[in-house]
Amino acid sequence: MEKQNRSGTAGKVIRCKGSAVCRNPGEPLVIEEIMVDPPKAWEIRIKILCTSLCHSDVTFWKISIGPFALFPRIFGHEAVGVVESVGEHVEEFQEGDMVVPVFRPNCRECRDCKSQKGNGCSIFGDKLVAEMPRDGTSRFKGMNGETLHHFLSVSSFSEYTVVDVVHVVKISSEFPAEKACLLSCGVSSGTSLMLMWMTGIGAAWKVADIEEGSTVAIFGLGAVGLAVAEGARLRGASKIIGVDLNQEKFEIGKKFGVSEFINPATCGEKKVIKEITDGGVDYSFECIGLASLMEEAFNSSRANWGKTVILGVEMHNTPLAINTYFLLRGRTVTGCFFGGLKAKSDIPILAQKYLHKEINLDGFITHEVNFQDINKAFDLLLEGKSLRCIIWMD
């Protein structure tokens, strides 16, 4: 792949002709020409090949008050691109590398990054910073000189973006670009879930550590719930129960291993789950973000050893009420952030599993649009018609 520095852009401001700028909350994005600064120390500038839209983009797009209501802003955090240039002290990447930016930092130097007990970063992982994580400044400017804010340390709705090295993972150039987008997201926030494939499959593999023959219940068959099902299928779960109000999700879920489907509108899911699993599932996953549903997921698990994994952030800030007697008998409940995965070590492994046809990514992509039609991707997601819409830059 030809290196972009040969065109003479390294170290210079790039006049970027394609960036989708959100100027006011809830308003359609506007394709604008902007200026993108060169990377500073420990940063790289990336030419985005394609990006995709996540519920979290929509969540923050709607926020009109509070510290996260920062406009004008460039959204986007699921993407794949090619390194155009690197800043000082960058040794991990070079021009022409195919990379996936991730919102979850992984410095590999702090105590948390070195530990196998979690996937946090004690140096860069405590705050959702609006700009670059090291100096708190933006690399984007409008043509009139105004500052354009970053989003989740990625801002992929732009032909070029600048990302800190702790937020970037190198992958094989053999990996299909449109599938690589699905490797980059995985936290939940706000009124919608910013959960994706990495969170779901990581929750099944690393957090729950599902064994062969286990029974599983998944509350919510969106992108993350389906990813949990895929992870459970690959681990050899004997029964994978999907719980969702949308009856059409069952047909979709079958592609990812869902063997039974329950619609809570027509029956009480807790009772049905216990009946068809002889007392409750070994593992339950809540993928929506409702305290009432988290309680149902917990109650559907087996009395003496059931494990409930919470993937959604409670959208109304409602506390979770659990009878401690059930905890004493052996049930557990745990949270899950980015599937417990460490970006720089785990994403390349999962990418290879896809290339070896061991895992299914293709079924998550339901739509594709060109960059000029990025607002159509928002419409599709808001209407519930899309799992993931790939947005092609070129």
TrEMBL record:
Keywords: Metal-binding, Oxidoreductase, Zinc. Coiled coil: none annotated. The keyword Zinc applies. Its cofactor is Zn(2+). It comes from the Eukaryota. The keyword Metal-binding applies. Pfam families: ADH_N, ADH_zinc_N. Residues 223-348 form the Alcohol dehydrogenase-like C-terminal domain. Residues 43-172 form the Alcohol dehydrogenase-like N-terminal domain. Homodimer. Belongs to the zinc-containing alcohol dehydrogenase family. This is Alcohol dehydrogenase-like 1 isoform X3. It comes from Gossypium hirsutum.
